[in-house]
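name: query_chain
kind: protein
chains: 1
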Amino acid sequence: ASYIYPDIDKSFTENFLYMLRAYPGGKLKLTPNGHQEIKDIEIKALDTIFTLHADHEQNASTTVVRSVGSTGAHPYVAISSGISALWGRAHGGANESVIEQLRLIGSVENVEKYIAKAKDPNDPFRLMGFGHRVYKNFDPRAKILKQMQVELSKELNLDSELMQIAQKIESIALSDEYFIERKLYPNIDFYSGVILTSLKIPREMFTPIFVIGRTVGWITQWIESKQNPKAKIVRPRQLYTGE
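structure:
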């Protein structure tokens, strides 16, 4: 396969989209002068996703990076451990699960049936992309991505079945007492999955895109721990409770 080289006249994010879409044999939408058509709103949307994923306190992967880094391990080793933690569907794969579930629901007509399943305590089905371990109210990052999705849909004239399903789920969940009482609001994974799909980015690329954004935070956390003269190896205690 041929290598796709970056264009030095493009920004980082524009280059990423350009190279992702310019694969050999790929179908490119070209402007009248023969250039690949990448709209400013697409660059802004992906740039926003990179920025919002850059760092987020002591999540699972960041904790792993700091723990491995505390042993004196090389930063490449620490970062690779973070990537391994992101492999899990409960962490890096969460936005992939959102899109899988939207496709499972299949049509707008099926949304209420699946909402009922999510509310049934005897049904194992749960809505993906709702609730957060830290945010007990609306995820502030999700608010930004929600507005970004509105702008993206308007400028690109997006009106796919998948988008309609996502919008109906969001509308019901934000007004249903079951979700409000339990503070189950759409989170960053719900909107990032929808936006990446709108950008026609393959689902298997969702986690690598998370990694690209989060690597900035991981490296910063690694540097911070190394600059602390009192830093010691991370050694959590495990207490036996007799059970």
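note: Residues 118 and 127 are 6 Å apart (CA to CA).
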